[in-house]
Design a protein that fits this description.
Length: about 280
């Protein structure tokens, strides 16, 4: 991936496939709330939407897209599938079901949601995803919640993983995970990029730059993500916060400010252990 500049709003995911660095997370929104949030987000300028089979909101996301009136080709649409589909043929079934729920005939990005290593079939799922890319059903594929050990098994099957979506925030920096991604050309997408309790949003390392730049603490943290070359997928149904979360490309943090936010790392593990949790 080429170096990021202040104006960069996308990253290269695959040849000819650019992924917007800020996306709209949709979990746990469902039904009319999800549809309204998606339609509003598109009106606010979002072009990257993130959903999943297990969120139970793909139909609502699709409804929100249709309400917006936007052309499908202007959107980057990501979904994820569950472990019951972890086989080469199962992935095709998962895609067809997801596309039907969303009301689209292709996905920009389709992810293995959890590796479920005890089941032992996530490598087959990745092979199935590559088949979907080769067949033109999806533009790119990736994984979510894969640890380096899981990624090594995928690589040993001759597959290069384009993207891994994992929990990253200033207190959950997952340095070993990110180092593996960097070493192997894997783009990182951060879910829960603003954390769950948001305590670090009140830390001087965040509030200082926010005050200096006339930005919110959330904007500072999202800028921290994108300056590190990550995709960030914050969830919000609030109109003002949606606009703020997307508006992180008109300012930049200094190296000292980035370093200070990096130093908030606690070494804490992700909330869920992907060796044992799955759906």
């Amino acid at each position: 991936m080429s170096g990021l500049t202040q104006e960069t709003t996308t990253a290269e995911l695959a040849p000819g496939v650019a992924i917007p660095l800020i996306g709209l997370g949709t979990w746990p929104l469902t039904g009319g709330d999800a549809a309204a949030a998606v339609s509003q987000a598109i009106a606010n300028g979002y072009r990257h939407l993130d959903t999943a089979e297990n969120y139970g909101n793909e139909e609502a996301v699709g409804d929100g897209i249709r309400r917006s009136g936007i052309d499908r080709g202007q959107l980057f649409l990501t979904s994820k599938f569950n472990t019951q589909w972890h086989s080469r043929n199962g992935v095709r079934d998962a895609f067809e079901a997801s596309a039907r729920r969303l009301g689209t005939d292709y996905l920009d990005l389709f992810l293995v949601h959890w590796p479920n290593p005890a089941q032992g079939r996530f490598v087959e799922a990745c092979e199935g995803l590559q088949g979907l890319v080769d067949g033109g059903f999806i533009r790119a594929w990736g994984v979510s919640n894969f640890k380096p050990d899981h990624l090594r098994l995928v690589r040993s099957a001759g597959l290069d993983v384009p993207l891994n979506q994992v929990q990253i925030d200033p207190e959950h920096g997952q340095q070993e995970q990110l180092a593996y991604h960097l070493d192997h050309g894997i783009l990182t997408a951060a879910y829960s990029p603003l954390g769950r309790n948001g305590t670090f949003l009140a830390h001087p390392a965040v509030t200082g730059p926010a005050t200096e730049l006339g930005r919110t603490p959330s904007q500072v943290v999202l800028r921290w993500h994108v300056q590190h070359g990550r995709v960030a997928i914050p969830k919000s149904a609030n109109n003002q916060r949606q606009r703020e979360n997307l508006d992180v490309f008109s300012f930049a943090l200094t190296q000292a400010q980035l370093d200070a936010i990096d130093a908030l790392e606690t070494g804490a593990s992700p909330r869920l252990d992907s060796d044992t949790f799955f759906h």
